[in-house]
């Protein structure tokens, strides 16, 4: 059971890392296309993503 939980946590972290890489790619593309407008949107969305990640992390510990 513990191994399954650790595997799930690792998968979640990997997913979060991929999401951050995708965000970084979008920022780079946004720099070329829209200038600073896109960066402002990303800066607004980033704390939301962090809060969601923390909430999911809390749910994982509650499940244990």
Commentary on this structure:
- The chain is mainly alpha-helical.
- It has one domain.
- The chain has two helices and no strands.
- The protein is about 95% helix and about 0% strand.
- Helix 1 runs antiparallel to helix 2.
Question: Could you outline the blueprint of secondary structure elements for this entry?
Answer:
Blueprint: H1 2-33, H2 36-63
Helix pairs in contact: 1-2
Mean pLDDT: 76
Q: Which residues sit in consecutive blocks of at least 5 with pLDDT less than 50?
A: none
| Succession of helices and strands | HH
* Secondary-structure-derived class: mainly alpha
Shape: elongated
Tally the beta strands: 0
CA-CA gap between termini:
9 Å
Biggest sheet layout: none
List the keywords:
64 residues, mainly alpha, 2 helices, 0% strand, transmembrane helix, transmembrane
Structure in a nutshell:
The chain has 64 residues and is an all-alpha fold. It is built from two helices and no strands.
